[in-house]
Write a structure and sequence with these properties.
Helices cover 54% and strands 11% of the residues. With 461 residues, the chain is α/β, with parallel strands linked by helices. The chain folds into three domains: 3-144, no CATH class; 150-254, Response regulator (Rossmann fold, 3-Layer(aba) Sandwich), CATH 3.40.50.2300; 263-456, no CATH class. The strands form three sheets. It has a six-stranded mixed β-sheet with strand order 2-1-3-4-6-5. Strands 7-8 form a two-stranded antiparallel sheet. The longest helix is centred in the middle third of the chain and has 35 residues, at 263-297.
Length: 461
């Protein structure tokens, strides 16, 4: 999912809230204005002052957002037509208004102003609709400039492929641009198109590809972390374990690499930012003590920085407290015969490169706490797969390549399931399981287990 696409999907929530709040405020302002007072005196101003009224408006606005959510107005990658979206907005605001009236009836606290209720209802419809139109116009302008557009290949020469090609050309608001249409699937041709245009996905428009062609398509999309969508036949359209949506009248089935998409991705990022900020503030005195200890124990920098590979194979500099001597990387080739782990990872329990303070930091798992800076910068997450070294990833098999579908984490399912003694193959399998089965509940359980291991597991050295 494109960042711009994610932004415009998410920004609808605060814009809708602001529109509802503004509608409530304007309704009150109009009702107490001198012009309206001349027609009908204000009788509720003493019982319902502006400050108390605005508190009520905030609560009603939040309730309206909940109603909108149940009506599907915050569905990610939504392709609602304007008329359908407007009908849901009217229905949502009307339901929220009925809820307010029912609540006031139960509480027997009806204030004497039907004008405010009607005015707020009309203004909310106008402002929410206007806000969404502005969002769509801004997104459309960016799409016309090529920002946030999904560059895709259509596979197959069926009539439905021609229909999609024409549809994407007529409706740039859908956010798709066809860069090529293939009749036969060949890996070389796909790679050439990717290098030439920079692809984002593949749409399979026919169901009669050979098993080999299907495998090539899936492997190509998995290797490059592209979206894979296809138009199903009658039987495939009934499958329930995939995401099915309609695009311009065409049913599209999307095979998602991870449930961590849409609001899940936004929710996880918000928790990462909050956790990183709170953690850095609370741990700042400890960081000062550790800095003094490292500097006094051995020569070298305070922090250890190393290139790691994260989501979509992007590289970044991971930050840790230095726990080894200055020339540790130069000494590593001599120690490879003593590697105690299978797979591409290097692990040696009594590594002679570790300093005295470094050994304590590793036992207490304090050396990894500066990774909160990586989380704050968006390079890592609090929970996720282990970050990967560039020389390691070349030895990963196809199943393990899925580890790059999401951001690496400070802790993860593998770390809380076996710590550093876990074989690499088992660690990778657990991380892939996390990616394919992510949920907020799973993150919470891993976080709780992580806190337990901070005080109980001493297998880090």
């Amino acid at each position: 999912m494109k960042r711009s696409e994610l932004f415009f999907d998410a920004v609808r929530l605060p814009v809708d809230f602001l529109a509802c709040f503004t509608a409530g405020f304007l309704a009150y302002w109009v009702r107490v204005s001198p012009l309206v007072r001349q027609v009908r005196p204000v009788l509720f101003e003493v019982d319902l002052p502006l400050r108390e009224y605005l508190s009520l408006v905030v609560a009603v606005s939040l309730f309206t957002l909940v109603v909108f959510a149940t009506l599907g107005l915050y569905t990610m990658k939504a392709t609602l037509r304007t008329v359908e979206e407007l009908s849901r907005i009217v229905a949502g605001i009307s339901l929220a208004l009925f809820g307010v009236i029912f609540w006031m009836f139960i509480r027997a606290e009806l204030f004497n102003s039907r004008f405010i209720l009607v005015a707020a209802w009309i203004l909310a419809i106008l402002l929410v609709t206007g806000g969404r139109i502005v969002i769509r116009r801004l997104q459309l302008q960016l799409l016309r400039r090529g920002r946030g557009v999904h560059r895709v290949i259509l596979v197959g020469q069926a009539p439905v492929a021609a229909g999609l090609h024409s549809l994407f050309g007529k409706r740039p608001d859908l956010g798709y641009r066809v860069v090529a249409q293939l009749d036969h699937v060949q890996r070389d041709a796909l790679e050439r198109l990717e290098k030439e245009y920079g692809l984002d996905g593949v749409i399979r428009c026919v169901s009669d590809l050979t098993p080999e062609e299907n495998r090539v398509l899936l492997d190509f999309c998995e290797d490059h972390k592209f979206d894979f969508l296809y138009i199903p036949d009658v039987y495939e359209a009934r499958i329930s374990n995939v995401v099915i949506r309609t695009l311009g009248g065409y049913p599209l089935v999307e095979l998602r690499r991870t449930p961590l998409e849409g609001w899940g991705r936004i929710w996880k990022r918000l928790l990462d930012i909050a956790g990183a900020v709170v953690g850095l503030i609370i741990l700042s005195p400890l960081f000062l003590v550790v800095a003094i200890a490292i500097t006094a124990d051995s020569a070298g920098p305070l922090f250890f920085r190393q290139t790691r590979i994260g989501r979509n194979r992007t590289s970044f500099q991971i930050v840790k407290f230095r726990t080894m001597v200055r020339n540790a990387e130069q000494l590593k080739p001599r120690l490879l015969p003593f590697n105690e782990r299978s797979g591409p990872l290097f692990k040696m329990r009594n590594d002679p490169r570790i300093t005295r303070v470094g050994r304590v930091l590793r036992v207490m798992r304090i050396d990894e706490l500066p990774q909160l800076f990586n989380v704050l910068m968006g390079q890592m997450s609090l929970i996720g797969p282990r970050p990967h070294l560039p020389e390691e990833i070349e030895r990963y098999d196809r199943r393990q390549q899925k580890l790059f579908a999401i951001k690496p984490g400070m802790s993860g399912l593998a770390q809380v399931s076996g710590s550093s003694s876990l074989p690499f193959e088992k660690e990778a399998a657990l991380d892939v399981h996390y990616i394919e089965n992510w949920s907020p509940k799973l993150d919470f359980l891993i976080l709780v287990k992580t806190l337990r291991r901070l005080f109980g597991d001493r297998s880090a050295v």
